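Why should sequence recovery work at all? Because a backbone constrains its sequence more than one might expect. Tight turns favour small or flexible residues, buried strands favour hydrophobic ones, and helices have their own preferences. The token representation captures these environments compactly. In the example below, the structure is given first.
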């Protein structure tokens, strides 16, 4: 388990990321080429993206933000909008079963 980001480590391992290098629990790699790793003993970490970009996260960045960024960088996070239309308020976008659906 990661020294200071166990929630991130567990989530990424659950998504198929594996240990990398000499610190397999503090540096995880995805088959896409994305790499997440701790850069300090207080929770600062970084994400190297497959396209060559990267981002550093401070120790105050929430685990959820880091996990979402990592999954997005690896192509594992697909945004979805699924709003149920109540036939009265006509939420947008309409659900596929709504008679007001136009596309």
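From this structural description, the recovered sequence reads:
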């Amino acid at each position: 388990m990661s020294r200071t980001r166990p929630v991130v480590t567990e989530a990424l391992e659950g998504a198929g990321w594996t240990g990398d290098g000499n610190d397999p629990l503090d540096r995880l790699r995805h088959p896409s080429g994305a790499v997440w790793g701790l850069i300090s003993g207080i929770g600062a970490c970084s994400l190297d993206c497959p396209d060559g970009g990267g981002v550093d996260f401070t120790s105050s960045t929430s685990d959820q933000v880091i996990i979402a960024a990592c999954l997005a960088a690896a192509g594992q996070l697909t945004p979805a909008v699924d709003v149920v239309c109540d036939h009265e308020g006509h939420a947008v976008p309409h659900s596929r079963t709504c008679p007001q659906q136009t596309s």
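A few observations help interpret the result. The chain has one domain: 1-103.
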